[in-house]
Specification:
By secondary structure, the chain is an alpha/beta fold. It has helices spanning 25-30, 47-58, 60-65, 78-88, 101-105, 147-154; strands at 14-16, 22-24, 35-40, 68-74, 94-96, 109-114, 117-122, 125-130, 135-140. A 5-stranded mixed sheet has the order 5-4-3-8-9. Strands 1-2 form a two-stranded antiparallel ribbon. Strands 6-7 form a two-stranded antiparallel sheet. Strand 6 and strand 7 form a beta hairpin. Keywords: Antioxidant, Disulfide bond, Oxidoreductase, Peroxidase, Redox-active center.
Length: 159
Amino acid sequence: MPQLSVGDTAPDFTLPDQSGTPVSLTALRAGAEHGVVVYFYPRAGTPGCTKEACDFRDSLEGWKRAGYAVVGISPDPPAAQARFADKQSLPFPLLSDPDHAVMEAWGAWGQKKNYGRTTTGVIRSTVVVDSDGDVALARYNVRATGHVDRLRRALGLDD
């Protein structure tokens, strides 16, 4: 699937969060002055995904002050997302995309190399959508460790 680039219109979506409540990109944008940080991760509770989610959690107040909402998306079912959110005290929505339709539309599903093998699955990615619904920044194949700090620097949000 093609990946999104700066200036593209971000595809809208509505997916269930960890409590089963539908959440749309439109609603997230409406509640955030500057935009939405949408990050895609392979599996709740794994070491890299936990590191990335906790980094977003620990910097969430800074994101909010800068006018951004944060949302995570994985193929996990809402119940797994809920356990992950509870265990790690994650105060932002974790959305379930089990058929990976949203991930495909956003370029976050496809072939990737893992330990020398080519597989198909979630490509760890982050896309920042501005308040108009356009892509302001897109990063694919990111490393979980240090990603949130690199993202904040790229957006000029160093505290």
